[in-house]
Design a protein that fits this description.
By secondary structure, this protein is α/β, with parallel strands linked by helices. It has a domain of 74 residues. The protein contains ten helices and twelve strands. It has an eight-stranded mixed beta sheet, sandwiched between helices. A four-stranded antiparallel beta sheet has the order 2-1-4-5, with helices on one face. It is globular.
């Protein structure tokens, strides 16, 4: 078993939402990332995936809870000590069109992290490093002086990945990095990320609402609903035999190759979608769960170990 690279403990994060109201983005979330793995973070839009990713790399400060990097608290680390740690924790954004400054050429975009963290590098050294990174992500060297608008969406995302790699990170949070791309281009970017991980011993927190994409790239999967973790475990086990009703719903909602194929009764959810401003008592999923009882309204199910997985449910599926 690899050692724990990054760990979040009991993370809670809220945001203001009008007069005397708060959006409950994260509630008592705990998560571990092991060195060299890809942990897929999956759930519907608004479940807190992106917020968790940013809290884990200290782009957002939690209301409560702590994040640890190799056992040292990032949350309590003074800014002066955290500054040299920052380049080790990088982010690849969802929208390749909005994440790159249109006024900067490719050389400047990839060189900016190098200029920031290695001011001692000469211009020639920086250019050599930029060319090396361009080659690593599949951007031709002759495109060095082009602007972002001269590239396709997939090429822009490759530039964004090269920019993240320039800081020589240990961990990259991939926040829906392929959701804005065509399916064929998605596969190319996913395979690129897997190749880079092997070459550079990278750790990924891969965020997506697409379970097929997450299963393709991840060794483990963490399923979230309305700011809380439902289930975590090996990707194949979670996808083939889900223990949480919400995980089963996500799997059944993936379009089948044969549209005539019927899913089980747990495929369709009833009830209203709960509000993150006024989340339900007890289990957050209970208002839509076909198996909910009075106990689910009274008690928050703890995240407990079941074999190789962790699940937060009073009535795990069999």
């Amino acid at each position: 078993m690899s050692r724990i690279l990054l760990e979040g403990k009991n993370l809670t994060k809220t945001f203001p939402a009008g007069k005397n109201q708060r959006v409950h983005a994260l509630t008592d979330v705990s998560l571990k990332l092991f060195e060299g793995e890809t942990l897929g973070l999956v759930g519907e839009s608004g479940c807190g995936k992106s917020t968790l990713g940013r809290v884990m790399i200290r782009m957002l400060e939690p209301d409560s809870g702590e994040v640890f990097l190799l056992g040292s608290s990032l949350t309590k680390m003074p800014d002066k000590l955290f500054r040299p740690v920052r380049p080790k924790l990088q982010l690849v954004f969802q929208d390749p069109y909005a994440s790159l400054d249109p006024r900067m050429r490719v050389r400047e975009l990839i060189a900016e992290p190098l200029d920031t963290w290695h001011p001692e590098y000469s211009r020639e050294t920086v250019t050599d490093r930029v060319l090396e990174l361009m080659e690593a992500v599949g951007i031709p060297r002759e495109y060095l002086l082009r602007y972002p608008h001269e590239f396709s969406g997939g090429q822009r995302q490759r530039i964004g990945i090269a920019r993240a790699l320039a800081a020589d990170p240990r961990l990259i949070v991939c926040d829906e990095p392929v959701s804005a791309l065509d399916v064929s281009v998605q596969n190319q970017i996913l395979n690129l990320l897997k190749d880079l991980q092997k070459e550079r011993n990278l750790t990924y927190l891969f965020i997506s609402h697409d379970l097929n994409v997450v299963r393709h790239i991840s060794g483990r999967i963490c399923v979230m609903f309305l700011g809380m973790v439902c289930e975590t475990g090996p990707a194949d086990e979670v996808c083939s035999a889900p223990l949480h009703p919400y995980t089963r719903f996500l799997i059944n909602s993936v379009p089948a190759p044969d549209p005539r194929k019927k899913t089980d009764a747990g495929a369709l959810l009833s009830g209203e979608i709960p509000s993150p401003v006024r989340p339900p008592s007890g289990c957050r999923f209970r208002t839509r769960c076909p198996y909910a009882t009075a106990l689910c309204a009274e008690q928050v199910p703890p995240l407990q170990a079941v074999g190789s997985r962790e699940i937060a449910c009073h009535y795990p599926l069999k």
